[in-house]
Every structure is written in C-alpha cells, then in structure tokens.
Amino acid sequence: MNEKEYDKLLQIKTAGTLELLSQSPHYNRYEATPYEALDVLFGEYKLTPEDGFVDFGCGKARVSFYVHHHFGASVTGIEMNGQLYQDAIVNLVSYRRKAKHAGGAIRFERCLAEEYEIEASENRFYFFNPFSIQVFMKVVWNILWSAESDTRLVDIVLYYPTAEYVQFMNNHTPFELWKEVRVDRLYEKNENERFLIYRMGG
Fold it and tell me: Would you say 139 and 114 are in contact if contact means Cβ atoms under 8 Å apart?
C-alpha cells in the first residue's frame, strides 16, 4: 500500500510536513515515519497488548495509530505543537469510528516531551529525531528514573538516528543496542534509513 492507501485504511490523515515557525530551536519539523519503514520495523519487532507505547513528537500520530491497529497496545502520543496536537485529536475521532472497541487505550498529551511524566505501564519509547540532543537527554533520564522506580524491561526505538543520539545512548546510558533494523530499499541510498532498538532490563 502507498501512503494514502494506508492512511485510508486507518481512517487518518498524516501526510506532509510542518515547519514549526517561531518555535524553540530545540524542536524539529513534523515529518511522518514512512509506512514502508514501519512495515519493516514491526515485521521484526513485535509488541503485545500488554505493552505501553509512547510516541515522542507524535505529530499527526501516524506511528501511534499504526501500533494500536496492529498490536492493540496502549499508546500515548506526546506533541508540543498545538496544530499538530489538534490534527492528532481529529485523527483519533476518525480512527475510533473504525476501531471502536479494539485494543488498549490511545491518547494524546500536549506538552513538552521533557515534562511528560513516564508511567509505570509504559515500556516502549519511539523517537524520529523530534528534538535536540539536549531535550532527548532529559527525556531518556526521565525514562531511566521511571524504570528505576518500577523495574521493567524498557526499549528505546530510534528511527533515522542522529550521531548525537547514538553517541549518547552508547556512552552515557545503561541501555545496550539490542537490534538494528534496516529499511533495505531505502538504506541502499541512505544509511540513515534504519531503526536502532536499545534495551535495558528484562
């Protein structure tokens, strides 16, 4: 399926990009993870309905709906931009008409990522370069704090990972690289077209 066909299947609208004009330089523009890449990732990386999935910088929430649709996991999307947050809510209303009782909870929070309080039920965290390394570090520290308070297996999934993100994860956290998933067709032209899954605990 192409991008439009996948959006139609989920009853959502997530295409395009959005520059965050006059926003903090620490937050990057909206760009959705390609469905092609999600199919590759989740062909190798399975979730369960018991998982709690957090999509940081969720934008219009393509990844959130994809995960909920395929795995029934509880999903939380975090978005600071008001327009994107409203788009996610509109998509949620439309999606819920199609999947009224399927899967776990799905919700969206409008807040700064570093101010979101990680819940004990949340164990899978997704990032597509939504913000600067400074913000990313704060979010990871919040995840670590939560995992120390409520011990559990925790994964951090990075798409199109920056060198700064990778260096921080490798050198300054207890997470270990558990799996690399390459989007082969795209990776041939661009070695950033990959997912890195870091794991701690379990």
Answer: yes
Cα torsion for 20, 68, 43, 18, to the nearest 10°?
-10
Is 168:144 a contact under the CB 8 Å cutoff? Answer: no
- For the chain, helix (H) and strand (E) counts, in that order, are 7, 9
**Distance of alpha carbon 56 from alpha carbon 59, whole angstroms:** 9
Q: How far apart are CA 119 and CA 114, in angstroms?
A: 14
Closest CA to 133 of 105, 167, 83, 182: 167
Beta-bridge partners for 106 = 75
Decide: residue 191, CB within 10 A, 0-12 exposed, 13-18 middle, 19+ buried. exposed
pTM: 0.93
Tell me: the pLDDT tens digits for 120-159?
999 999 999 888 999 999 999 999 999 999 999 999 999 9
Side-chain half-sphere of 120: how many Cα atoms within 13 Å? 4
Bridge partners of 79, per DSSP, are 110
Q: 160-183: string of b/e by CB count within 10 Å (b at 16+)?
A: bbeeebeebbeeebebeeeeebbb
Residue 114 DSSP code: G
